[in-house]
Amino acid sequence: MAGVRAALMRGGTSKGALFLADDLPADAAARDDLLLRVMGSPDPRQIDGLGGAHPLTSKVGVISPSAQDGVDVDYLFLQVVVDQPVVTDAQTCGNILAAVGPFALERGLVAAEDGVTEVRVRMVNTGGLATLRVQTPGAAVTYDGDTELSGVPGTAAPVEIVVEPSDTPLLPTGHLVDELAGVEATLIDNGMPSVVVRAEDLGVTGTETPAELEANDKLTARVREIRLAALPLMGLDPDPDATTVPKIVLVAPPAAGGTLATRSFIPVRVHQAVGVLGGASIAAAAALPGTVAHDLADHAGGSRVRVEHPTGFLDLQITTEGDRISRTAVVRTARMILDGTVYPGPARPASPVRTVQER
């Protein structure tokens, strides 16, 4: 059986398999069929593959040299659904993005410098750009450091991610507040299409555990209704099963000394933490006066926005110029767990692959 070279890496609070594009089939359908067999989907336990039986641990990054001037590498993110034969490129992932810089350096796509090496990345899913600052003492990647992340044991070397402003409207509808399914909401995209809603407007506190929120049938039905209403307003595919965005984010006053408490539906399960780019959109909503998040937030931290989530917090630096976000930065960590050859499971002809068209 032919194997494929892959790296299993943690990026932020997610884990996934990273590949060079040249090591995968060029045909998208063939590639996705292979990735389903590599990750062990569809199977709730993903027992026959690399996946960890949760959306946060069933992720893939496909990396290639970029043809765009001033950009080092292209990063295509693919979500491999755990219990369905589905591979989707409907969104990107900022946590796995943290692993892209070290991976590109390890694979020789970018030459490491002594000290810190910058890797400029184009996120293929969205067209967005980000610069990653990777620790490279002695011109070699190090994963050792003293940076802590909520939801990740121990410490590691920091990877600073600076997300560049995009041409995508920050407020897709042009409004700070819209009414969706009878609820006030802020529709925002500072890297991740998101719908921000006051938790109290949906009858919860916003500090419940993910399991409690997922078990609340009335709440999850309302979340689906809000998401369905948001899709066309944000210029997204109106079929809710064709995309994993927008994320529905419940916000509440901070409960642990941060800026804002959050719970994020991604889009059905509730995130155990918060995505990097989802956090960037939440932080932007907190920073802009007039949104549903702004008045709930504690702004004592100034440009630092601490987004509280179920397992801790995510710190971001948000710089505003009037009604726009001019700079978003966040520190993550990453780690190489395994670098080697992965052997895909047997083909399952009875399980069709459904791939969302790359954009």
From TrEMBL:
EC number of this enzyme: 5.3.2.8
Recorded GO MF terms: isomerase activity
Name of the protein this chain belongs to: 4-oxalomesaconate tautomerase
UniProt key word Isomerase: yes
Keywords per UniProt: Isomerase
Domain of life: Bacteria
Family that this chain belongs to: Belongs to the PrpF family.
Lineage, highest ranks first: Bacteria, Bacillati, Actinomycetota, Actinomycetes, Propionibacteriales
Keyword Isomerase among record annotations: yes
